[in-house]
Amino acid sequence: MRIIAKSRLRQYWEKAGNEKSQPYLNEWYHFWVKQNWSSPQDVKDTFRHASFVGNHRVVFNVKGNDYRIVCAMDYPRQAMYIKFVGTHKEYDSIEVKEVH
Predict the structure, then answer these.
(1) What is the pLDDT of residues 41-90, one digit of tens each?
(2) 96 pLDDT exceeds 90?
(3) Which pLDDT score is estimated for 45?
(4) 13-41 pLDDT, tens digit each
(5) What span, in angstroms and rounded, lies between the C-alpha atoms of 36 and 39?
(6) N or C: which end of the chain has fewer CB within 10 A?
(7) Which contacts qualify for 12-15: CB closer than 8 Å, 24 or more apart?
(8) What is the rounded distance in angstroms from the CA atom of residue 27 to the CA atom of residue 11?
(9) In this structure, what DSSP letter does residue 76 have?
(10) Could you give the C-alpha distances from 51 to 22, 59, 60, 65, in angstroms and in order?
(11) Residue 79 burial (C-beta neighbours within 10 Å; 0-12, 13-18, 19+)
């Protein structure tokens, strides 16, 4: 899968106080960029804890649910668009289907 854009991950870990997230977000990126999915079931088969929340959005838990990444999926184009990166607490303050 093409992940668009890794810069969102980098921007998150470069913010003051988020430096500890870098190895976990890097690991997430390098794992998912190797995937080749054509359907939500492929995602579930790979990562059973992925949450499908509507509007083609999938929520991934990182580091035991310390961080969350929301992606919009485009299976025909083999692309994942990162819409949100943050802690579980930050995630609770967003509207996951609407976040840009």
Answers:
(1) 999 999 999 999 988 999 999 998 899 999 999 999 999 999 999 998 99
(2) no
(3) 94
(4) 999 789 999 999 999 999 999 999 999 99
(5) 10
(6) C
(7) 12/85, 12/86
(8) 16
(9) T
(10) 22, 5, 7, 12
(11) middle
Tokens of 72: 């919009």
SS3 82: strand
Q: Do residues 66 and 20 touch, judged by C-beta distance below 8 A? A: no
- Backbone φ and ψ for 57, nearest 5 degrees, come out as -95, 140
- Maximum Cα–Cα distance for the chain, whole Å? 37
Dihedral class, residue 56 (left if φ above 0, else alpha if ψ from -120 to 50, else beta): left
Which domains does the chain carry? 2-91 (3.30.2310.20)
Within 8 A by CB and 6+ apart from 87, the residues are 66, 67, 68
Sheet holding 57-62, edge to edge: 2-4, 79-87, 67-74, 57-62, 51-54
